[in-house]
Amino acid sequence: MAAADPPLTAVRFGIIGCANIARKVSRAILLSPNSTIVAIGSRSLEKAAAFAKNNGFPASAKAYGSYDAVLEDPDVDAVYIPLPTSLHLHWAVLAARKKKHVLLEKPVALNVGELDEILAACESSGVQYMDATMWMHHPRTAEMKGFLADERRFGQLKAVHSIFSYNSGADFLKTDIRVKPDLDALGALGDTGWYCIRAILWAADYQLPKTVTALRDAEFNEAGVILSCGASLQFEDGKIATFYCSFLSNLTMEISVLGANGYLRVHDFVIPFQESVGPFYVNANTKFAELSIGIEPSPTEHLVKTDLPQEARMVKEFSSLVRKITDHGSETEKKWPTISRKTQMVVDAVKASIDKDFQPIHVVY
């Protein structure tokens, strides 16, 4: 069934490419109260038309047999780009030059040099940029941040550890674009590692580490694409962080954050186990119980409900920023480009450490 007519102030999206993740984000665009879809482009007109039909696009949405046609459409305000990472530089820059606001799938680029070109094009054209890291927009994320900011209950940040892994089987490891060096050369580091690195930076208030050292025994496929890896991050003030990302391990999506006075853990930070609620767990001022037969107080579970899925909240926030620019002449929001660039810098540092026999890499903004 096609989507209902959008409100008159809706940001009009074009989608460039029919990747599987675009099914989820197109649903989010239609769920968000301030956005709609007006165009979809693929290298095949038939594929674009089938994608629109199968995903409930409005009957008025146009299907195109090229990506350029989406960017040339005057009815398109913003584009969502779920293409392979190797294509991001070309199409994101072109979209920005065509005055289309850019919601870019992660990993956003193959390296920070490419990302800088994308961000410069967006800045020059006055269009909003945001990467599609969905968990950042769940209300749970803000509530967890509130706990980390509580000096009495959490205190000084000491350590962070994050894991994001999944095992999609032998066919994935042979055919998926994320294991192809010409499409997504960063492999697991760019896909699952992006989330882990973002989680560490988020916990550290986006302070960059002083050095990044990849852990030995990273795993690669025959083409040299990373299938699993980990790294340690050292910060100027002494805090440390580690992460592990993989295409070869059971589905796991965890953040553990340790403070002088408290501890936070979330088991499903990338995609909540339930769409409408996100749990997390905290300990504060924990001690051993009498005879060390337990701890007190016990960990507390917090359940954070949301009226919209986190990806729809992402689209809603992005669309709100677009409307401020188009309707009120506001400046672009610089928070999202800055966060994206810092994440990419750490990705680059991990890759450089792997390439240099796991030597420490200094990170300079």
Helix content: 25-40%
CATH architecture of the largest domain: 2-Layer Sandwich
Mean pLDDT: 96
Number of β-strand runs: 18
The number of domains = 2
Proportion of residues in extended strands: 15-25%
So what's the CATH class of the largest domain?
A: Alpha Beta
Apparent shape: globular
CATH topology of the largest domain: Dihydrodipicolinate Reductase, domain 2
Supply Rg: 21 Å
Span of the ends, CA to CA: 48 Å
Element-level helix/strand string: EHEHEHEHEHEHEHHEEEEEEEEEEHHE
Task: Characterize the structure shown.
The chain is α/β, with parallel strands linked by helices and about 375 residues long. The chain is about 35% helix and about 25% strand. Strands 7, 8, 9, 10, 11, 12, 13, 14, 17 and 18 form a 10-stranded mixed sheet that branches. A 6-stranded parallel sheet has the order 3-2-1-4-5-6, with helices on both faces. A two-stranded antiparallel sheet has the order 15-16. The chain is globular and about 70 Å long. The model has no long low-confidence stretch (mean pLDDT about 95).
